[in-house]
C-alpha cells in the first residue's frame, strides 16, 4: 500500500483550467448547467490527477465520520451476515462508521458500489469479489490512489494487501473424504463461478480427497453456478444434468450457503431420497441445520472471525504512519459437522 498522495482540490482544477470553482464543481456533478464539452474536459483532468472529493471528506470528518466501506455478495446470506457481525464488532469498538453495499454477484453493481464508496471518501475498504468479477482494474485504481483495501473470502493476489479466508481446500477435502469413508464413490460437486478463489480452492480439496482414495476424477461431476446460486434455476439446472447421468451421482458436495440449501430443497421437490439415493455435504452457516429433514451435514466456516480479522487488519492499515512492506493471508480453520444427510443407510 502506498501512502496517500497529495490530491488535487477543486480549487487546483479550477486554477489549472481557467474555470471557476463553481463551474468545476457543477461539471463533476454532471450538472445540466455545464456544456458536455466542458464536463468532459473537467472529468478527464480530474481523473488524470486522481481527484477525490476532499470537501466531502472534510465534511464527514468534521462530523466525526470515520468510515469503512464494505462490499459483500448479499446480505440475505448466512455466511455474509455472520461476517458483517464480526466486522461490526471491531468497527463499533474503534469508532468507525460502517457503510455496507451488496454486489448481488454483479460486476456492474460492484463497480457502482466502489464508485459510491470512494465518493463518500471512506478511509478503507473491505471487499469480497462478485461472482462476475474477472478483471480487478477498478480495485487497482482505487488502491493506487492510496485507499487501503483488505480482501476477505473471495480474494485476489493481483493487489498486495491483507487477505482473510477460511481453509477452503481443507473444507471440501474433509467433506469429500467423509462421504468416501461412508461408502459413497460417485460424488458430484456443485460450486460457484470458475473465476472465484473459493471455487478454485474448494475444487482442489475435492480432487485431493478423490486422489487419496484412488477415485477417478470425472469432470462431468463438477457443475458451476455462474452467480453462486443466487438464481435458484442455475442450481436446478446443475442438479437436472447430474440426475440425467448414467449412473447418476450417489452424493453431492455443495460449495456455498445458497447452493447447499437450494440443492436440498430441489432434490426433495424431485422426490429424491436423502441420503439413500443421494447424500449431501454442504458449505453452510445456516444457524439451525438440524431443522432440515434429514439433518444437514455442513462444512461450517468461521464467518464471524473472518469479518473480525479483516476489520482489524484494515484499521491497522488506515491508522499506520508508515506504509507496510509485508502482508499476510490469514487462513482460518473450518469444521465438518456430521449429521444425517451424509450417512449411508444400512
UniProtKB/TrEMBL annotation:
<dbReference type="InterPro" id="IPR028082">
    <property type="entry name" value="Peripla_BP_I"/>
</dbReference>
<protein>
    <submittedName>
        <fullName>LacI family transcriptional regulator</fullName>
    </submittedName>
</protein>
<dbReference type="Pfam" id="PF13377">
    <property type="entry name" value="Peripla_BP_3"/>
</dbReference>
<keyword id="KW-0804">Transcription</keyword>
<dbReference type="Pfam" id="PF00356">
    <property type="entry name" value="LacI"/>
</dbReference>
<dbReference type="InterPro" id="IPR000843">
    <property type="entry name" value="HTH_LacI"/>
</dbReference>
<dbReference type="InterPro" id="IPR046335">
    <property type="entry name" value="LacI/GalR-like_sensor"/>
</dbReference>
<dbReference type="InterPro" id="IPR010982">
    <property type="entry name" value="Lambda_DNA-bd_dom_sf"/>
</dbReference>
<feature type="domain" description="HTH lacI-type">
    <location>
        <begin position="8"/>
        <end position="62"/>
    </location>
</feature>
<keyword id="KW-0805">Transcription regulation</keyword>
<keyword id="KW-0238">DNA-binding</keyword>
